[in-house]
Specification:
The structure is a homodimer. In chain A, the strands form three sheets. Chain A has a five-stranded antiparallel beta sheet, sandwiched between helices. A three-stranded antiparallel beta sheet of chain A has the order 4-5-6. The first copy, chain A, has a two-stranded antiparallel sheet with strand order 1-2. In chain A, helix 1 (3-20) crosses helix 3 and helix 7 crosses helix 8. Helix content of chain A is 50%, strand content 17%. By secondary structure, chain A is an alpha+beta fold. In chain A, a hairpin with a 5-residue loop joins strand 9 (292-299) and strand 10 (305-312). The radius of gyration of chain A is 26 Å and the shape is elongated. Chain A binds chain B through residues 99-101, 134-135, 137, 139, 141, 147, 149, 151, 153-155, 157, 159-161, 233-236, 238-240, 248-251, 253-254, 256-257, and chain B through 99-101, 103-104, 134-135, 137, 139, 141, 147, 149, 151, 153, 155, 157, 159-161, 233-236, 238-240, 248-251, 253-254, 256-257. The structure holds a DNA duplex. Chains A, B: It comes from Arthrobacter gyeryongensis.
Chain lengths: 337, 337
Amino acid sequence: MSEPRKLEVLRAIVEDYVHSREPVGSKALVERHHLGVSSATIRNDMALLEEEGLIAAPHTSAGRIPTDKGYRLFVDRISEVKPLSAAERRAIHSLLEGPDDVEDILERTVRLLSQLTNQVAVVQYPHLSRARVRHIEFVLLAPRQVLVVLIADSGKVEQGVVHAATDATDEELMALRARFLGSIAGSQLDLMPQVLPSVVALCPPTLRNLAGALAHGLERLAERSRDERMVMAGTANLARSNVDFPLSIGPVLEALEEQVVMLRLLSDMAEDPRGVTVSIGRENPYDGLSEASVVATGYGPGSSAKIGILGPTRMDYPNTMAAVRAVARYLSRILGG
Amino acid sequence: MSEPRKLEVLRAIVEDYVHSREPVGSKALVERHHLGVSSATIRNDMALLEEEGLIAAPHTSAGRIPTDKGYRLFVDRISEVKPLSAAERRAIHSLLEGPDDVEDILERTVRLLSQLTNQVAVVQYPHLSRARVRHIEFVLLAPRQVLVVLIADSGKVEQGVVHAATDATDEELMALRARFLGSIAGSQLDLMPQVLPSVVALCPPTLRNLAGALAHGLERLAERSRDERMVMAGTANLARSNVDFPLSIGPVLEALEEQVVMLRLLSDMAEDPRGVTVSIGRENPYDGLSEASVVATGYGPGSSAKIGILGPTRMDYPNTMAAVRAVARYLSRILGG
DNA sequence: TGTTAGCACTTGGGCATGTTGAGTGCTAAT
DNA sequence: ATTAGCACTCAACATGCCCAAGTGCTAACA
């Protein structure tokens, strides 16, 4: 038996199954794809593929379905990332034009990606650990409530409320703001924990308490901006593409709502030399996603932040991978410039 | 025939159907609810209720199901908003404790409400038109890119990027910031369009251009914070509560993603004297929600912003309404104080 | 007049049974 | 190594049957 043909058969099965949603049998296979052999031969090949765990039959007398392992092989060795259609390229161009602030861009991007792939799209906020402090602002909301705002030179703004143990005045806050700003302006966000304590220590005793609270607030903000967040779009696609029930969407919606889960998932995906990483079905660390695949890639400086999509294992990998890669590139270009 | 009993029958039908998900028949009804009459009598009443369009039979020989109109009557005249259970009260207390900034609070609130009701919860950002300018900040991101930050005394922080026609320097920005701040600090957000032009007019000609761009950015931010946004949680409940398919969740997810739709929906809901407003099935202006109900109420100053839930028409209205009302009250209290 | 008992009637759901067709695995021939 | 042929399996579909739940109606009743 010929090894290359076996792979060809696998590819055919995957491709057919992906857009028919039905188990594909030997006969249908020889008809649609002009492999130069008879269905009996295909049957033999399929038996082997099944032995290797690449495909499986839902029941005795049905066609075969690719297994997770089968998709994996398909993605790794068979499929070629297709170039995007002209229409798709145009869509990317026009939709990502007119950049605004980071949030806007990410929101549009993720919407675009979800439309392009008909899946749920997810994008992680860019990492900002290397960003530097640009400004800070203390705003008195109530006598013991202070709004702390941290502006990074990356354009990211973080805010949070700090509760003081004693009443604070505007003047005190002004003074403290000047002190803090003098010491930390321009320093990296992830160095804050090292720098802040010394500032507090130098404060006059009467202010020490308040300063401590504020410093703590600033640390939290710095951490939060290093700490990750995400935007998503296209959840309705989950319901659409699964008119039947191959993917029970409940657990997937849960995973998406538990942003922490998704963020870990994205972060943990190793960078793939081919540009996009794919995690298929049970390969996913999260149980609820055992029938789903994630296609993701990095973007931006150092490809540190991730963008990707989430969909049923039965998806059009080549096109999806192409879309993810293309969108990530455009995004990198826009943010980078 | 007795009018009050007819209503009692409707109530019984609604209550039974809501938690059994199955059409309820005359016999089952007399068994579970000790109405003092026989099933035959109930049958007569049911025939009348059906004539009035309050209930309907899915097929000849099945029990009856409440119609939208039936739910409406139930909500308006029959049901009493049940008090929350002690456990629920405790949950509200503990989860909404430790207030942070507005975003945090809203996020926790909406999560809480979705858990309490097992539905999708939605909350609109509070209206801030009456808020005043506390601080502004211009940050140079690139020679022609300026990050504009607007901090309101309500604790809301808005940010956006402005593109300048010519290169700007830090010094220029500092100067402009001082000018702007001098004129608009303390003035209401919705007065910005009136105030800003005069500031620009007073700028030296060399800065006029840049000032114009910044003023425009500030206006946009002020508008955006008046302009509405929302947070939601619990989309996974859609899949859960509809294990079968009474509610096709696709269109609902779409509606939720089109935030504009949801926001209009919420805004358009008239304030109800009883505290919560309910919009049932086809009463909803949006087609995708023809099998869903919205239970919402206002919160915060003037009850101007809305909070509510979205679920299948077949939902436990009394409890849901109670939860929405209770959460809205707590939220008002927290934000108000 | 409102209530009730009784009864004929309708109908979806469950079940057993039969049939069909797609698909497989195996064997023997090429 | 490939192929034709064939026996076999099994989900999906159809058919027929019965049952239970539920209805509407009528006639008797308080």
